[in-house]
Design brief:
Strand content: under 5%
Structural class: mainly alpha
Number of strands: 0
CATH superfamily of one domain: Ncd80 complex, Nuf2 subunit
CATH architecture of one domain: Orthogonal Bundle
Length: 469
Amino acid sequence: METMTFPRYSPDDIISYLRSHILQGAEARNLVKGDVFGSPRLDVLHMIYLRILQKVCGIRLEHAYMMPLNVDIMYPQIYEGFLPVCNLYIHMERLLPMCRISDFQIADVLNPKTKRTVRFLSGILNFVNFREFRREAYLELQLNYKSAMEKNQHLEAVNREATLKLEKLNTVPVEHEAEIRQLTENIRELEQLLRQEYRRKQTALQEVTSQKKTYIAERTQKLNECKVSLAALKEEQAQLKSQIVESPEEGKKYNKQMKETIEKLKRSKQEVTAKYERYRDVVEVLPSCQMELQLCQKKMEIQGENVERLAVVTSEARNLEDQLDNAQLELKKANTDETCLKRVVTAKHEKLATAGAQLKKMQEDIEQHKCTVLEHFNEVQEKRGAVYDKVMTIRKEIKQKKDKIEQLKNDAEEKATKAKEIHLILKAVLDKCHESLLKAVKTSEASRAEKIDEIREGLLSIQSSGDAS
């Protein structure tokens, strides 16, 4: 038997709670008991789970239709129909362990059963109620925490102001430093005077106390001497009393007392003799009394044995009565157990009959579900075939493009090698041109220098001819 960690709600209570707290507007108005229990509608049940996740976990509606970013899937269009169901199952599997439910399965989303959905919804509603209750308490605690923090900040500000004031009070202003120094000197002088007076009074008191102690010691010594003398006087008084002779009046009083005691003794002797005579008569009668007592003792012993036998018989009778009562109770219990067992057997037969009917219905439902699943599978296979054809064509195009890219790479490499060769050739040609240009520059410089020399010589010759004329 499963351990119940939360109360089980009835379907009517669950529907009323869903209408009033979970769903809103047209969704709450159009919700019917048959949409969730019995033969439930999957879209309605999924919508209820989504609304619960929105309220409790803050999951938005678009999260149910989004592919996870950390999953690398090549063709996500294949998962379009199954993605919302898978996301719903993942989120519900995270929520339900908080509701003390640990046996949620994917079949409870695809093919829900009435008892399991009632248990799941009961646990969820219990968790929602608990969440609302604790949320109110948490908000109260948050408000109290805010007020406490404000008070703490206010007290800290007051404490800072007080510390500043204390620092101001402790710090001596420059104006009053001279007065404070003078006051401290005066206080020190007064303390010295007080100490001197205290010491003087202390020495005077010590002298007085020493004098009093000596006086007390002398007085105690005198008192001890007086006690010793008093004890000696008492001993002498006792000795003197023993030596004193008694007077004749005291002797007469003593004789009278002795006579009175003698008379008392005679009276007591007479009383004792009278009592003795009485006891003697009683002793003479005692043997007959002893015989009677022995007879009475025998009768008492017989009566005691009879009483013991009667007690044993009564205890046996009580035991038999108890056994009879127990047997009657056991008979009643057996009769009640027999009736209960008959009822249980009839109830089990009825349950077996209903279970057989439910099994037949379940088999029919399973067959219908198999047919629908097969149809859905065939549709998915057809879609998959079409997607497969598209994928194959795309792969062929990708291969063609890859081949073209490789050809272009090869052409580019060939062109690069040719360009390198041309670059090397051009570089060599340029080097040769540079060398030829350098040679031409050198030759032109030499010819230029020669021409300049020739021009100078010509000019000099012309100048010299002009001077001669």
